[in-house]
Specification:
The protein is of the alpha+beta class. It contains 8 helices and 20 strands.
């Protein structure tokens, strides 16, 4: 099997450039102490740290700097990377998604199905599903899920043990994501959405999700074909290309270190890892290996087709389509992979252009 190179980090980080509580230099040090390979920063409507030249390698941690844009109603939040300018929030979501795409940037829909209970913390969901050109979706946003679960009775408990509250991405967003990927590649990523705000409950003054705590929860694992370059621009392109090609999976570190998880499709003549495609035939086997015992689910076009408890699962594919993996520990989400595409063959044995997803030929 062809080896790939795994890099682990976190996405959707806020600093004092907007509404975070620590400067980027301190946050980078926290990421370095924890041993993260990369950090993706996206402050609201600013590229100040990018303009200061802080994007790139900081010892063994790569820093990617984008920004978070929203519309005039403060809805439809969107993470933009590989951009040198901040677009106006007077644009509609359809307009800024299109413009970021046309400028060659990377665009990610943030906390798309957010709902909240406490009126002082309004939700910021994504409603512009007719926008065209987005590259990815935050299928799991840590701050959103935590805020959705909080109420007046459990506030203190949720503040003291924030990671325990995380369960998994919502069925709604997973369904939308699966449906989109049957048309074109859309990567799914996790977002910690960390601000580390101070908050007071009666006599108690707490930091909501300190950076170090949130860096030990939802993580993104990139799978690269070659090691990250020491050159800043080359490494940046490697990271962005891997995301656009869906070569990643996400995990909740609270339930174990997912590094080393593998999911690939194999036939007599082909092999495909996460984010890649392979031509469907009767001898295609989907292979899953996890670092620890868990409940493993294999899904085809969004429907579970195989399930087991353990560290391994193999499945002989019955149909073409898109396949992905979910893994659970204590009935809570641990690992969620991006898809592998099994492309149909025409009667002559070649890939069927009519049925293949555009641009995903094996």
């Amino acid at each position: 099997m062809t080896a790939w190179h795994e890099y682990v980090g976190v996405s959707h980080i806020h600093t004092t450039d907007s509404d975070g509580s620590k400067p980027i230099s301190e946050i980078i040090k926290i990421g370095q102490e924890i041993g993260l390979d990369f950090l993706f920063f996206s402050d609201h409507m600013t590229l100040r740290s990018l303009q200061l030249g802080l994007e790139g390698w900081h010892e063994k941690t790569f820093v990617l700097i984008g920004y978070e844009i929203h519309d005039q109603t403060n809805k439809n939040h969107y993470l933009a990377f590989d951009m040198n300018e901040v677009l106006s929030c007077e644009l509609t979501p359809q307009e800024y998604v299109k413009e970021i795409n046309q400028k060659g940037g990377l665009g990610i829909i943030a906390h798309p199905d957010e709902t909240r209970v406490l009126p002082q913390f309004p939700p910021y969901p994504w409603t512009a599903w007719d926008a065209e050109g987005f590259d990815g979706i935050e299928i799991w946003n840590q701050m959103s899920e935590w805020m959705e679960g909080i109420n007046r009775l459990n506030q203190l408990k949720m503040f003291v043990s924030p990671r325990k509250a995380l369960r998994s991405p919502t069925p709604k967003i997973l369904r939308i994501w699966d449906e989109l990927n049957q048309k074109r590649k859309i990567f799914g990523i996790s977002g910690v959405d960390v601000h580390a705000h101070p908050y007071r409950i009666g006599p108690f003054k707490l930091i909501i999700f300190p950076y170090k705590v949130q860096f030990k929860s939802l993580r993104t694992h990139l799978l690269l074909d070659t090691p990250l370059s020491s050159d800043n621009q080359i490494a940046k392109k490697q990271i962005i290309d891997a995301m656009k090609n869906c070569q990643l999976f996400i995990s909740n570190y609270r339930w174990g270190d997912a590094k080393g998880f593998s999911f690939y499709a194999k036939s007599k003549n082909q092999i495909a890892k996460i984010g890649e495609s392979i031509s469907f035939s009767e001898d295609v086997t989907l292979i899953i290996k996890t670092p620890q015992k868990c409940q493993i689910r294999l899904l085809h076009n969004g429907t579970i087709v195989s399930e087991s408890v353990g560290k391994n699962l193999e499945y002989s594919a019955k149909e073409p389509g898109i396949y992905r993996v979910e893994a659970y520990v204590h009935k809570k989400g641990w690992i969620f992979s991006n898809h592998i595409w099994l492309n149909p063959l025409s009667p002559g044995g070649r890939l069927s252009e009519a049925k293949c997803i555009a641009g995903l030929g094996g």
